[in-house]
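Example S7 (structure tokens).
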């Protein structure tokens, strides 16, 4: 049985698993911990508004096992089964036979907290949501794949942006747009030349012309998108042909705001999920996954799923 990797956080909510209930430990900014137990239904958790959320408990009976059968993988040759261990994330998107139709349902994009995101992000958070080692690994990756600094005509979009984008030190382009939910955070971001305050879960359409950007980034926020197909189609529209989209994620998040399918699955499956967004949005090259975790088991993991817009 494939191990279900729980969500691990330092200053953010944690989701450890138990057989009969889930103890939700919230570590606040002053490191004080408070614990509560959520009632659990037959199929998972039940929120205050009565919405049940699935909990996938192992590859043998999991939703992803069904997906692999739909994709034509027999027992023993599933990419999930072969994608275990350190390089699991890097293997899961190789030679994928995708199901014919987008495999997720509306309920997979529900969240425990369905209150407006504008309220949740109303107060600025001038903190980082991954540790320094993971940040350094992401910045190093960016330095390898970004166009050289100050390249004429290059435009970039940092989606779900905040007060920091983790770009290489001194990196600049003619146009770097930040799109996020908190204006005070966006104002503090030194790499941005402009910003847009927008809730993608309410308005997934991007306010930019076709073929506007050479690079789109999204740091540890793809798991909050409740309309990912609309957003990824828009990403394709506003990217220039050959433009690069880089989605990075860890195992840390505000789990009450993360989508159900994310909080119920492992890091390897997260890469498959993000890869599916690129695939079913259309217009992208086959997505690739990279594990850039700097110190596995000792610091926050860091993963990349990326793709380029088709040139033709």
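Recovered sequence:
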């Amino acid at each position: 049985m494939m191990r279900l990797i729980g969500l691990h956080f330092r200053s953010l909510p944690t989701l450890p698993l138990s057989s009969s209930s889930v103890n939700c430990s919230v570590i606040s900014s002053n490191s004080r911990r408070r614990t509560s137990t959520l009632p659990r239904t037959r199929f998972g958790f039940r929120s205050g508004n009565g919405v049940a959320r699935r909990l996938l408990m192992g590859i043998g009976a999991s939703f992803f096992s069904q997906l692999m059968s739909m994709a034509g993988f027999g027992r023993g040759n599933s990419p999930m089964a072969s994608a275990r261990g350190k390089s699991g994330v890097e293997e899961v998107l190789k030679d994928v036979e995708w199901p014919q139709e987008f495999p997720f349902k509306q309920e997979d994009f529900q969240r425990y907290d369905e209150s407006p995101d504008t309220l949740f992000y109303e107060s600025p958070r001038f903190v980082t949501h991954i540790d320094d080692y993971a940040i350094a690994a992401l910045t190093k990756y960016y330095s390898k794949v970004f166009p050289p600094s100050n390249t004429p005509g290059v435009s970039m979009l940092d989606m779900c942006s905040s007060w920091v984008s983790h770009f290489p030190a001194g990196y600049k382009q003619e146009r770097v747009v930040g799109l996020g939910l908190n204006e005070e955070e966006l104002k503090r971001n030194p790499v941005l030349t402009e910003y847009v305050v927008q809730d993608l879960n309410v308005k997934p359409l991007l306010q930019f012309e076709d073929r506007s950007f050479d690079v789109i980034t999204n740091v540890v926020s793809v798991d909050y998108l409740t309309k990912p197909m609309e957003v990824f189609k828009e990403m394709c529209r506003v990217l220039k042909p050959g433009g690069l989209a880089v989605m990075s994620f860890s195992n840390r998040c505000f789990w009450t705001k993360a989508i159900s399918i994310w909080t119920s699955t492992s890091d390897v499956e997260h890469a498959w999920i993000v890869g599916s967004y690129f695939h079913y949005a259309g217009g992208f090259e086959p997505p690739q996954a990279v594990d850039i975790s700097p110190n596995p088991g000792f610091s926050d993991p860091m993963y990349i799923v990326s793709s380029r817009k088709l040139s033709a």
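Notes on this example. The chain has a mean pLDDT of 78.
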